[in-house]
């Protein structure tokens, strides 16, 4: 099983400048390739393979206007073009929407490093055209790496590499756990485990309040420094925006850590099967009253972590089909209550069952008919 290992980098100031050059070049190459595909499609032509685009870029690099592309590794632009072509192919096949162009302000700063040229020493890693960079911990030596990526999270630089790992399969119980995700509680399990909504804690609320105040302050400063239709970015605005980025990072880390703790606690019970709903998160986000709460819960991330952790320990992971009535079905007699509203937090059935609706849903998932057992 290939698992990613993410390790913090400690570059010097000169190395950080080179890292930013690689990030900018990767973003430019991605947008250039995507624009070429779009213009080609408008003219009624077929999909351009990434090999053709890479040849075009090589010819472009030889012109004086694009000599700056030689300042970074050619593998950075090569992989960026591949990524753009893969995203565009998914759009053509109907698997995704038209890919967005990468923004200098909003897109995650990252780029690819060739696996063959990735060298590792004790607390050091060699990045192409950057040099040997110190790492906060040792990257495993003597193993094959897959898809090395360097990224920046608004505070620190990281390298993530996929490493093939083998794990001892623990002896599993016969228990089947159904997990119902929600807004009131993050997850309610059929075995009685309940994981709270971390967004209701004091720490998140205080951090969110501070974030809103900083955003309001930045907005006021932009208005104060407005020159016609142009906004002037002062040094104070830059400082405040950096603080805002750090708060966003902190909130994201708190939520991700909570999800890791919850998913770890579930797999440590060593069930034979885990069943979850195949949630239409993008559809749920269209509800303007709940979209923020749903987004903060990170349902997709929870499901992703459960999938790979179940695979890691040999636990069977099942997704119940999207329209399975887990909330409306009585876990005792099987009757489906069609008039159940979202505001009904307690499930009451004619058979006498009276139960929290999330707990009832988790029990239904645990007895899901689609299980291959």
UniProtKB/TrEMBL annotation:
This is Transposase. Residues 164-288 form the Probable transposase IS891/IS1136/IS1341 domain. One of its GO terms (molecular function) is DNA binding. InterPro entries: Cas12f1-like_TNB, RNA-guided_DNA_endo/Transpos, Transposase, Transposase_put_HTH. Residues 299-365 form the Cas12f1-like TNB domain. It comes from Sporosarcina luteola. Residues 1-46 form the Transposase putative helix-turn-helix domain. Keywords: DNA recombination, DNA-binding, Metal-binding, Transposition, Zinc. In the N-terminal section; belongs to the transposase 2 family. In the C-terminal section; belongs to the transposase 35 family. One of its GO terms (biological process) is DNA recombination. The lineage of its organism: Bacteria, Bacillati, Bacillota, Bacilli, Bacillales.
């Amino acid at each position: 099983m290939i698992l990613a290992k993410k390790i913090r980098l400690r570059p010097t100031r000169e190395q950080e400048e080179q890292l930013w050059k690689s990030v900018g070049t990767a973003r430019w190459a991605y947008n250039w390739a995507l624009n070429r595909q779009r213009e080609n499609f408008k003219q009624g032509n077929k999909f351009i393979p990434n090999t053709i685009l890479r040849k075009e870029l090589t010819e472009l690099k030889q012109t004086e206007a694009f000599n700056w592309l030689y300042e970074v590794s050619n593998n950075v632009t090569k992989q960026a073009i591949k990524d753009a072509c893969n995203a565009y192919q998914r759009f053509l096949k109907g698997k995704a929407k038209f890919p967005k162009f990468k923004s200098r302000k909003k897109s995650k700063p990252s780029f690819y490093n060739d696996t063959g040229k990735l060298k590792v020493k004790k607390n050091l890693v060699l990045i192409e055209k950057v040099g040997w960079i110190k790492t906060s911990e040792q990257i495993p030596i003597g193993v094959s790496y897959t898809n090395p990526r360097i990224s920046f999270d608004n505070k620190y630089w990281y390298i993530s590499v996929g490493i093939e790992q083998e794990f001892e399969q623990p002896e599993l119980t016969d228990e089947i756990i159904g997990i119902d995700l929600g807004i009131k509680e993050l997850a309610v399990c059929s075995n009685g485990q309940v994981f709270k909504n971390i967004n209701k804690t004091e720490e998140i609320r205080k951090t969110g309040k501070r974030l809103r105040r900083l955003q309001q302050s930045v907005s006021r400063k932009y208005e104060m420094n407005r020159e016609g239709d142009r906004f002037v970015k002062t040094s104070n605005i830059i400082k405040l925006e950096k603080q805002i980025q750090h708060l966003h990072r902190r909130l994201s880390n708190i939520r991700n850590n909570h999800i890791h703790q919850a998913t770890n606690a579930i797999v440590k019970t060593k069930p034979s099967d885990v069943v979850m709903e195949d949630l239409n998160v993008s559809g749920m986000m269209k509800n303007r009253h709940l979209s923020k709460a749903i987004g903060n819960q990170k349902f997709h991330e929870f499901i992703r972590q459960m999938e790979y952790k179940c695979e890691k320990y040999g636990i069977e992971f099942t997704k119940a089909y999207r329209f399975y009535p887990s909330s409306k079905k009585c876990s005792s007699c099987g009757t489906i209550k069609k008039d159940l509203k979202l505001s009904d937090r307690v499930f009451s059935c004619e058979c006498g069952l009276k139960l929290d609706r999330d707990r009832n849903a988790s029990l239904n998932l645990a007895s899901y008919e689609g299980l291959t057992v």
